[in-house]
Design goal:
Blueprint lengths: L1 E11 L3 E8 L3 E7 L6 H6 L7 E6 L4 E9 L9 H16 L7 H15 L7 H17 L8 E2 L4 E2 L5 E5 L3 E5 L11 E3 H13 L7 H16 L5 H10 L3
Parallel strand pairs: 3-5
Antiparallel strand pairs: 1-2, 1-4, 2-3, 4-5, 6-7, 8-9, 8-10
Helix pairs in contact: 2-3, 2-4, 2-7, 3-4, 4-6
Organism: Microbulbifer halophilus
Function: Involved in DNA repair and RecF pathway recombination.
Family: Belongs to the RecO family.
C-alpha cells in the first residue's frame, strides 16, 4: 500500500468512479474505483478529498484499478475559504503534474499545505495567502519552472540586495536600472526580495512582507504553464464570495 490523496473524481460507467490521486512514488495517477458510486458508505468514509489514504492499485496500464483502501489518519476538514484554497491546489496539480512520475517533495509540501489550511477558520482570503504562495513556489521549483531566485543571469553571479531585476522567460532574472522611487512593473523585483524568497523556499517560512512579491512571481510563472484555460476553482471562488 502507498500513501495517497484524492485530487479529483468523476463518474465512470454505471456505478464506478475514476479517481486522480497524488502519491509520492507515482505522482499523479488515475485509477478506477469499481462500484464506488453504488457503495455510498465507502465513498462517504474513505473516498473524500483532503483525507490521507493508504491505497493499493492493480494493473499495468495507465489507468489502474483501485484495490483495498485504508485511512491513514483523520480527515482534514477545511472550512470556509480554505476549502477553495484546497480545491485550487488540487486543480493546479491536475493541470501541471505529469502522470506517473515520483513526486516525493510535492507530496510532502501538499501534506504541509493541507495541515496549514485545516488550521484556518476560513473567514478571510488573506489567511490563505501564506500557505498558498509557499506551496506554489515549492511546486514551481519541483517542476523546474522557477529560475534560481538568487542568481543573476547576466552577471552569472548572485543578485545584489540593492538591485532591481526583471524576470525574462527562458533566461531568468536580469538587472534593470530604475530611479529609487520609481514604481516597479509586475515583472520586476527587488534583489532583497528575491534573496528573501530564495531563503523562504528552502526554509518553508514565508514572511508576510514577502507576500506581494511572491504573488506577482507565482502569477508570472504559472501563466505560461496554465495557458488561456481559466481555473475552475478560481471562478467558483469568485462566484461564491462575490457579494461578501
Amino acid at each position: 500500500m502507498q500513501p495517497a490523496y484524492i485530487l479529483h473524481t468523476r463518474p465512470y460507467r454505471d456505478s464506478s468512479l475514476i479517481l486522480e490521486l497524488l502519491t509520492p512514488e507515482q505522482g499523479r495517477i488515475g485509477c478506477v474505483a469499481r462500484g464506488a458510486r453504488r457503495d455510498k458508505q465507502r465513498r462517504r468514509h474513505s473516498l473524500q478529498p483532503f483525507s490521507p489514504l493508504l491505497v493499493t492499485m492493480l494493473g499495468r496500464g495507465d489507468l489502474k484499478t483501485l484495490g483495498p483502501v485504508e485511512s491513514a489518519g483523520a480527515p482534514l476538514w477545511l472550512k470556509g475559504r480554505a476549502v477553495y484554497g484546497g480545491l485550487y491546489v488540487n486543480e493546479l496539480l491536475m493541470r501541471l503534474l505529469p502522470v506517473g512520475e515520483a513526486q516525493y517533495a510535492v507530496f510532502a509540501a501538499y501534506q504541509t499545505l493541507l495541515q496549514a489550511l485545516a488550521g484556518l477558520d476560513g473567514s478571510s482570503s488573506e489567511q490563505l495567502e501564506t500557505p498558498l504562495r509557499r506551496f506554489e513556489l515549492q511546486l514551481l521549483y519541483q517542476l523546474g519552472s522557477c529560475p534560481p531566485l538568487g542568481y543573476c543571469a547576466q552577471s552569472q553571479g548572485p543578485v545584489a540586495t540593492g538591485g532591481t531585476y526583471r524576470l525574462e522567460n527562458e533566461i531568468g532574472f536580469v538587472p534593470v536600472v530604475r530611479p529609487a522611487n520609481a514604481r516597479r512593473p509586475a515583472g520586476e523585483f527587488a534583489g532583497a526580495d528575491l534573496l528573501a524568497l530564495e531563503r523562504a523556499v528552502d526554509s518553508g517560512e514565508l514572511a508576510p512582507e514577502l507576500l506581494p512579491a511572491a504573488k506577482r512571481l507565482t502569477r508570472l510563472l504559472l501563466a505560461p504553464l496554465l495557458g488561456e484555460k481559466p481555473l475552475q476553482s478560481r471562478e467558483l471562488f469568485r462566484q461564491v464570495y462575490r457579494k461578501q
